[in-house]
Amino acid sequence: MLDPNSSNVELPPIPGKRYFTIGEVSELCQVKPHVLRYWEQEFPQLKPVKRRGNRRYYQRHDVEMIRNIRSLLYEQGFTIGGARQQLSGEGAKYEDHSRVDIIRQLRRELEELLAFLKA
To answer: What total of structural domains would you count in the chain?
Structure first.
């Protein structure tokens, strides 16, 4: 399911796209596609858009929610039920968590830009 050594690895930045396929989300969140489909059943907040042929398309807020779920389950040690409960009563904390991710991503991008300009 998840390599125990990879739980502390920083996740890649989320690209500025509107929709992501299940494969892209799997790579961005380091979670296998079958786990994402399972989480859709367990977490009512997770509702990707389904289009032709029942294909799933995730938006940025879905990817951020998945990263939050992943953190709760794999890093903080919550059970599925505990994570569900945490998410249902945690609106402000979730927003703070996503802001931290956005700041990290901006910092990485600025550091890359600085390195490019120095070269």
So the answer is: 1
**Structural domain for 33, as ranges:** 4-118
Kindly list the distances between the CA atom of residue 112 and the CA atoms of 44, 88, 98, 109, in Å, as whole numbers in the listed order.
Answer: 37, 37, 21, 5
Predicted pLDDT at 106: 86
Helix (H, G, I), strand (E, B) or coil at 46: coil
> Which CATH number fits the domain that encloses residue 10?
1.10.1660.10
Phi-psi region of 53 (alpha: psi -120 to 50; beta: other; left: phi over 0): left
pTM for this entry: 0.67
Q: Which two tokens stand for residue 79?
A: 């059970």
What's the distance, CA 111 to chain centroid?
A: 22
**Below-70 pLDDT ranges, the chain:** 1-9, 90-99
- Decide the pairing of beta strands 49-51 and 55-58: antiparallel
